[in-house]
């Protein structure tokens, strides 16, 4: 299986510099030191290779829940954990940007296989964050407030969107440190729950 993984690795690397729609099987085979014929022994087409890469990235993304589970979320420790979560997601997206960019593209085009991968990738961290929010609401007597899963889903979607569009914020001349601070505040507030005025 070494050849198969080498083909996947080279697909990943080529996507750093080559737009997905311009990538060819010949490019991948050449970069892997083999041929297009060998590529087709393992994958039906480039999309099949991309789906395999997406599954690998999603499996790693599921581990992001470890940044939430079994951690204190009150006071200074809670703030530090919110910051760690933000940094973890920014790092994950930056590292896997070549694959995640294609996952987003094919999801937007309606490919349900890639949509399922994206949902699976964020499912564990969303559920872990929802559990933390539910616990914080119960502890503070705020169980009638916004549904924990809704808040967690909104926070994770926000984090993923900002991470995937980091270049856009930089184009607006928003320093990444300021964006990180804003994201940390939103996560911390979303978990610990500052009271919203009743008239809202």
- The overall pLDDT average reads 90
**Outline type:** elongated
Structural category is mainly alpha
Number of strands: 0
- Reported by name, the CATH topology of the largest domain is Tetracycline Repressor, domain 2
- Unreliable stretches: none
CATH architecture label of the largest domain: Orthogonal Bundle
Number of helices: 10
Q: In whole angstroms, how far apart are the ends?
A: 58 Å
- Helix content range: over 70%
Indicate the CATH class of the largest domain.
Mainly Alpha
Q: Spell the H/E element sequence.
A: HHHHHHHHHH
Strand content: under 5%
Main beta sheet strand tally, sense and closure: none
How big is the Rg? 20 Å
* Total number of distinct structural domains: 2
Outline:
The protein is mainly α and 200 residues long.
Description of the molecule:
The chain has two domains: 42 residues, Orthogonal Bundle (Arc Repressor Mutant, subunit A), CATH 1.10.10; 143 residues, Tetracycline Repressor, domain 2, CATH 1.10.357. Helices cover 72% and strands 0% of the residues. The protein contains ten helices and no strands. α1 crosses α4, α2 packs across α3 and α4 crosses α6. The longest helix is centred in the middle third of the chain and has 28 residues. The mean pLDDT is 90.
């Amino acid at each position: 299986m070494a050849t198969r993984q080498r083909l996947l690795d080279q697909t990943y690397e080529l996507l750093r510099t080559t737009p997905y729609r311009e990538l060819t099987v010949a490019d991948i085979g050449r970069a892997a030191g083999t041929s297009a014929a060998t590529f087709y022994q393992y994958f039906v087409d480039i999309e099949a290779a991309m789906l395999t890469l997406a599954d690998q990235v999603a499996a790693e993304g599921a581990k992001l829940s470890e940044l939430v589970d079994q951690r204190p979320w009150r006071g200074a420790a809670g703030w530090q954990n919110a910051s760690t979560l933000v940094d973890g997601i920014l790092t994950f997206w930056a590292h896997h940007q070549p694959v995640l960019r294609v996952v987003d593209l094919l999801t937007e085009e309606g490919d349900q296989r890639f949509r399922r991968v994206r949902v699976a990738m964020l499912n564990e961290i969303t559920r872990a964050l929802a559990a933390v929010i539910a616990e914080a609401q119960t502890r503070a007597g705020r169980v009638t407030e916004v549904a924990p899963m809704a808040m967690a889903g909104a926070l994770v979607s926000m984090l993923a969107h900002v991470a995937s569009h980091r270049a856009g914020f930089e184009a607006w001349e928003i320093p990444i440190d300021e964006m990180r601070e804003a994201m940390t505040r939103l996560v911390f507030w979303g978990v610990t729950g500052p009271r919203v005025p009743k008239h809202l």
